[in-house]
Amino acid sequence: MQQPPRRFYSRKMDGMRSDAGLQGVLRVAVEVADALSSGRPVVALETTLVSHGFSDGRGLVAAQQAEQRVRAAGAVPCTVGIADGQVRAGLSAAELQRFAEAGTAARKAGARDLAACVAQGVLGATTVGGTLAICRVLGVRFMGTGGIGGVHRGFADSLDISSDLVELARTPTMVVSSGAKAILDVPATAELLETLSVPVLGWRTDTLPVFYRGAGGPPVAARVDGVVDAARIAALHWKLGCPSGLLLGRPPQPELDIEPVLAEAVGRVARAGVTGQAVTPAVLALVEELTGGRSVAVNQQLIADNAALAAEVAVAYALSRQ
Predict the structure, then answer these.
(1) Neighbour count for residue 272 (Cβ, 10 Å)
(2) Which residues are known catalytic residues?
(3) Helix or strand or coil: residue 249?
(4) pLDDT tens, residue by residue, 224-244
(5) What global pTM score does this model have?
(6) Cβ of 273: how many Cβ atoms within 10 Å?
């Protein structure tokens, strides 16, 4: 069912971590602000998947499905992006379309890029890390995504490590994903998360999912089999003074074993001299080509499923605080 047009405001919000200096810079949808101020569940969603994660506008479909699943579970979606000199928390349908039409022309905006995008009026599609930075400002406790960034293969030579991990370590938000992106060095990513004191939980699994596959990853710190359990662990983590977020790894359904394809794609991209933020979209595009599009269907499904699970845990968390 089509949603009514959203209203927006950009003033300071009672009970939220903001300040007058953000007026005109941070615009929060009224629906999102009302939910946060009343303690109702909110789930943050990124925009990089819209502009960089898929080809031919299919990222827009993934984002729309994620928002729909969040609503169906009883939470409010808060999709984050940067446009026209503002960080926007809660996007309209037209704004989502704008990110899809821009594609890779939109700047990938991690936490380090937010200020520059705002100051320069650049269209910025927030990564997991960039979205978490806004979660920290607003007090959003839950986020859904496909896979987080992490330690890249061959990191010893390149030191290529995603700032997603740093932002997760400093933001009290639970991120529901299918582990780290499969193009990464997943065991090294898990080791760094341990070093950063970020709890890695497995949703009905004892090992960290490997994006397209549920098995084959390193052991998780704890297994959870229900949303109430997940919400309680998050609440206790923060009550005990731990400042970090948590990662809840949900195995994808259906799965797709494409490790040989991934290895080939990573190798080709490396030989082409692609580095930094351009690596992930380049590899994903090549994986899509090499799998005949099968990776796209799995990716879209896991994004929607992870958003739904994030919403279910957010609802359980909100109910526990009433």
Answers:
(1) 11
(2) 46, 181
(3) strand
(4) 999 999 999 999 999 999 999
(5) 0.89
(6) 7
